[in-house]
Amino acid sequence: KAREYAGTPKAELSLPKELKAADLLNFICAEYNLENFKNTLILALNEDYVEDSEELVLLEEGDELAVIPPISGG
């Protein structure tokens, strides 16, 4: 559902080299219409989960940032 709201499965962004994870998530949610999902999304940078929203994220050209929606199973 989140992909439908975002309107794309993949995007390229120009971002500052460092910012807090919470600020990064806020930017992505605002840019891609994901505000309704913000409290349930998880970020991963180069396949490593960003665990703390206060963590400083250091970005370099070519990094892969994933926005992961809630995963359910059963």
CATH class: Alpha Beta
CATH topology: Ubiquitin-like (UB roll)
Give the H and E element order: HEHEEEE
Overall mean confidence score, pLDDT: 89
CATH architectural arrangement = Roll
What does this structure look like?
The chain has 74 residues and is an alpha+beta fold. It has a single domain, classed as Ubiquitin-like (UB roll) (Roll), CATH 3.10.20.30. Helix content is 22%, strand content 22%. It is built from 2 helices and 5 strands; from the N terminus they run αβαββββ. The strands form 2 sheets. It has a 3-stranded antiparallel sheet with strand order 3-2-5, with no helix packed on it. The radius of gyration is 12 Å and the shape is globular. The two termini are 19 Å apart. 7% of the residues are buried. The model has no long low-confidence stretch (mean pLDDT 89).
Concise structural overview:
The protein has 74 residues and is of the alpha+beta class. 22% of the residues lie in helices and 22% in strands.
Keywords:
74 residues; alpha+beta; Ubiquitin-like (UB roll); two-stranded antiparallel ribbon; 22% strand
Give the helix/strand layout.
Elements: H1 2-6, E1 18-20, H2 21-31, E2 42-45, E3 48-49, E4 56-58, E5 65-68
Antiparallel strand pairs: 1-4, 2-3, 2-5
Pfam family, one: ThiS
Keywords: Nucleotide-binding
Protein name: Molybdopterin synthase sulfur carrier subunit
